[in-house]
User: Fold these one by one.
Assistant:
Number 1:
Amino acid sequence: MWIFTLAWKNIWRNKSRTIIVLSAIAFASIISLPASSLKEGIFQNLISNIVGSYSGHIQIHQKGYWQEQTLENGFVSDANLTFKIRQIPEVEHIANRLESFALISSGEITKGAIVLGVDSIEKFQFTRVCDKLIRGIFMDSGQGLLLSEGLSNKMKKNVNDTVVLIGQGYRGSIAADRFIVSGIIRLPSPKLNSGLLVMPLTEAQHFFLADSIVTTTSLLLKKSSDLNQTAHKIRALMNKDHEVMTWEEIMPDIKQHIQTDSINMRIVQLILYMLVGFGIFSTIVIMMSERRAEHGMLLALGMSKLRLQLLLITESLYTVMLGSLLGLLLGAPLVFYLHKFPLRISGAAADAYAKFGFEPIFPTSTDFSIFLYQSLMVFIIGTMVSLYPLSVVHRMKAIFAMKK
Amino acid sequence: MEKRAKQSDTGIEKLNSKDATVIDAHNISKTYNPGGIPIRAIKNIHLHLSKGEFVALVGPSGSGKTTLLNMIGGLDQPDSGSILINNTDITRLSQAKLVKFRLHHIGFVFQSYNLIPVLTAQENAEFIMLLQKIKKFKRNERIDMLFQAVGLSDKKNVRPSQLSGGQQQRVAVLRALASKPQFVLADEPTANLDSEAAFNLLDIMLKLNKEEGMTYIFSTHDQRVIDRVKRVIKLVDGEVVSDKITDIL
């Protein structure tokens, strides 16, 4: 216990020097913490944009559907299997969809559109189509559909207008029918917002002449971090006729983008930490030189090298932990502020994000693991720079060290 | 053996009853090689010290006083010979055991006090006992008694920077004595003190020597110390040239 007390007293021996070191560590944390948090927040936002508004975390298809996305590769949803999947604790919602392509036409305008048939789960709890309504209503039955805002603009159609859909139905049949625009939805993904139309699942099955057929069973998880383990559990439940895909497999380009950006950020952080590490190291070198005679005296008096090393490690760790804590205390309010009021980008950067289908906002993440990671990094730096005093003490001979 | 017999001639045998032997250095030598040139710092020295002795190692600079003191204190190893402290040959101990041995058997007083600046006088004085894991109430008891004995009771909670040189050295002596070691090695303890502080310190050491029967070995060329010790061992060029009991006895 006395070692901790003595170490605490020792770090305040030279107050100015300690304050400079603490400031350097705190500064690095203040820069690094919001940066990491922003990075995580942006990625989480990207994932939730894509996953939450459309793909889901995990999708189940008939085997081969992903290679050839046609109605012929749809399947009849198995209620028993759906029940089993619902029992997996990590699963938040499960919804069935029928997704295909059709031409939407009105007057002289004809456009291609993704047709999405959604069930009541999806409507209210999954992608929450109803929450995205900006005009009109979602009709549970009848020939009403929702147009995405971009598509409604392209078609120059509004609520209560009529449109015609033409497409290829199940097993080569012709699908054609007239629908009323019952509402307009705005989706965060610009890509989807410009070419999606939504109707009740049963209506879509009826339109495509594909009764009971779904193309996708989509799952939303409680936590994104449970992705792979949940996918593994679901695969164990499925037979060979189905394929289970995570959003990372569905959109490998987005996963790649996140990984690349993560690496870039890690490199910047590493440089920052190295600068701080060298700062602390130089201070420790000076401190060791100044206190060499004292350390020699302690060894002469009968203090074991191990105890002296423990004392010096404790001093280093106190310094880095205190600096880190200071950095966390100063950096955390900014993280929480930017989480509540995210940065909104504009101009070319916003357009670039839109091209990828992402919402152009930069929120921070307040995930505990980010704060933990910062503390861990600082702890590792502290431990690494402590190796120098350990080595000096290990080689120290009291009789020579005491000579001033 | 010849030298030992010579020492006996000086009357030391009176102090050297077998039971009371604290240090028995036998035929120790030490050679340094600074820049490749061998210098024999200690040449075949025999030394026998008993409990309660108050001894000064004297001699000109480079005579080997500090080297001898360091070897007795287990800080340096002789090239040959043996050093028995309470029948333990410290030249055969591993470094780790030697550190433990120093902690439990030897007290050190240095020329420049070497107190830990961030600790109070009391914390400095009890530092060795802390390393020895002695319980707090026992430490307090001992420290209170010693601070009273050296007249520093009112300075217990003061840091070294607020003490005079003489007071700091007294605290350093208390640190060496607090754990009741077998003997205290003091390297030029009065070198940085004015006369009054030096006499005060020596009075305190003599008092504790009488009261606690503690053995003291000084390395010094301070006449003020030499005049107060009971035995003076003179070294020249690494050899004992005289070993005398003084009038103070």
Note: The radius of gyration of chain B is 18 Å.
Number 2:
Amino acid sequence: MKTVAVARFLILVAAAALIIVSMRYPMWYMYLDSNNFPNGIGMSIWATHPGDPEDIAQLDGGLKEVNVLNHFIGMKEISRETMPIFRVLPVVLMIVAVACVVAAFIRKKWASFAVVILFAMISTGGLFALVYNLYSFGHNLDPTAAIKIDPFMPGIYGEHKLAQFTTYSDFYWGTYLLVIAFLLIVAAWVIDIISFRRGHETLTAPTGD
Amino acid sequence: MNWKRMLVFVGLGIAAVAMIGLTCDPSSAQQRRERVKEGAPAKADMAENALKVYVPPGDLDEYYVFLSGGHGGQVYVYGLPSMRHIRTIPVFSPYPATGYGYDEETKKMLGGLTWGDTHHPGLSETKGEYDGRWLFINDNAHGRVARIDLRDFKTKQVLGPIPNLAGNHASVYLTWNTEYLFGATRFSIPIPKGTVADVKDYKEKYKGVITAIAVDPKDGTMSLGWQIMMPPWNYDVADAGKLVSGDWWFVSTYNTEAEFIDGKPLEITASQRDKDYIIAVNWKGVESEVRKGNVTEIDGAKVFDPIKTPGYVFAIPCAKSPHGVDVSPDGKWFIGNGKLSPTVSIFSFEKLQKAIQDKNFAQHDMGIPVVKFEAVIEADIPVGLGPLHTVFDDKGFAYTSLFVESAVAKWQWGGGGREWKMVDKVPIQYNIGHIASCEGDTVSPKGKWVFALNKLSKGTHLPVGPDQPESGQLIDISGPKMKIIAQAFPEPEPHYAQIIKADKIKNVIEVYTKAENKNPNAIWDPKDAKVVREGNTVKVWMSQIRSSIMPNVVRCNEGDKVIMHITNTEEMRDELHGFGICGYDINGVPSPGETLSYEFIADKPGVWPYYCTNFCSALHQEMQGYLIVNPKK
């Protein structure tokens, strides 16, 4: 049926658009509260770079302050240069976006499913990379640092305690948009499953009745 | 020795001991303090008063108070109603606490002088309302004026010493749209500066000037506008007109006797006349004459002669050696505060205009037309002894400081059917000079508080030896009776203050952003820190961030000129770093994002540590380096 074909096309293109738009928003942020930062400090992670949270104007400080504090305990500087993931992630996301568009044009049974698998693998990989990065930053502390603390795992989600800080981490629109994009791709796949079950012909190009 | 004689000696001895005992009796000091507390509130009222001035930690004061620092050369920022001292802004004096006067830029601003005498701060105004942009202040000592930017609360410009002007007391008193601020001679001298004439020729050879300093409306930059040549009277305190009188400027005078006699105190010479003058200047009119080129140039200043071109400068008789002259919020009245007469005199601006039009002059004194007193006086109010200054509230009352009587008089504003009359009086501790009320010299005073700036504190504080602080007292004027409810002890010596609602000072910054720091010598990464030798000059680009100074070793040779550019690369509020070199007179405190430059000759060989002087972090103690000065071979 023609409308289903158009819907599937639009859904996949929209998913591609959301993936690209998601790079304009932080995927994740962390706030650090302590008595001597009454408004808290914070940092965030985009697909492309680390940076300040969106509400930086209300805070006492952003990524630079986090790095200044981290240097006391010998943590590596959090920057685009020190974290290879920021070079990999945008490329990978672009590949998924392109794959969505390609799948939108290829009306084969496996096309949308392939994108689902690709996306699932990449997001699992991305999540793992983020966790690994946090882990490695918290565990590879410079042994010559002024202040020595036990290696630690920064919180990925929710509230945690770290020295004088309470940290709050959460995902943000960058991630949410990717989740929505993923759900859209799954929806396209579901459409494919139902349509192919009803018959191959409904998804072929309109015959010009 | 016979027993009678012995008895007399013993008796005298007892009497002497008793005398000593009586004079040392702690109860007499106690009694004196008790007298201070006379009129102090009953226990039950204390809690109520205390709550009015209590600002808990974390809460903010409602008003800023800018107090001049007198011969301290500074400005103090206080909060109202808490009376807490929040900050000192150095203006005319070096101030190691902020590093002011040590780096090249501020050193240049100070021009080799290490003190000034700040008297009358003036907030910039738009249509007679504080606009919260700049604070201007005068230097009575060297004839200068300065501008403080209220974006970062730092002194941005020092103008002067102004030519021909000695003892810039009647200053800054800016016009109601900040077109000009003013300065006027307190100590007449032969002009231009550097000319010598003996005091025997005081009347003929000595001159006063009134100086208008133009203010750039965009960035506040001050420049020398023009001057008015005046007789050798002492010009004391001033105020600019507003609204209907907006084109006028008023200044009080003493020593219109125009004499200075070798061996005879001026306090006698200058107090012979029953009346001296308030001078009214039509500054708009003088400005147009100056534009026409109707001036003589003296020492680089365009000087206008009001005798050659009459019609703009007039004298109004006022009893006796009047001190403050204050224009009412509606601009229709100006008030002379008698100082040596127990009255304030209220003059009508409208009547003044009419008298000028009708040429209703009693005489010309040294060429200046003197308007007939009866033609302009509206009312005399017997406020008490030694009236100096008057401020206003929002309910039609005025408050006059009484120096001799150590009191504040509250009187009702008359006119339009309302009676001019005294209402209330409250004793203060002690000898009040200026007085300030919330936005009390604008077109819309806010009432609520009056701040008494008292010259003497006389031990109303914990004993601190003979050098005693000044006294500032907060008077609650919200009720029908005035109540003194708090006291602070400012450093010497506040003369006048400006009180502005805190929310009128907007956009105060806490950090200089990278974009704002246009200094070509700024560096933003410790990796860019370097030492470069050029001949006998050693140039250093230095960075400061928690908790290191880079480079941490600077090597040079005895006799080298050392130039250091230091950038505090912090972007966090209150992360100030100090920079002091032990053994060298270098001390600075760059604010976050600020670059300061220092120049000195490395004339002492040896190893000289330098370090962060402003406590910054857990590893502040480690924030140090070495200046190694190799001796001459």
Note: Confidence is low (pLDDT under 50) at residues 21-26 of chain B.
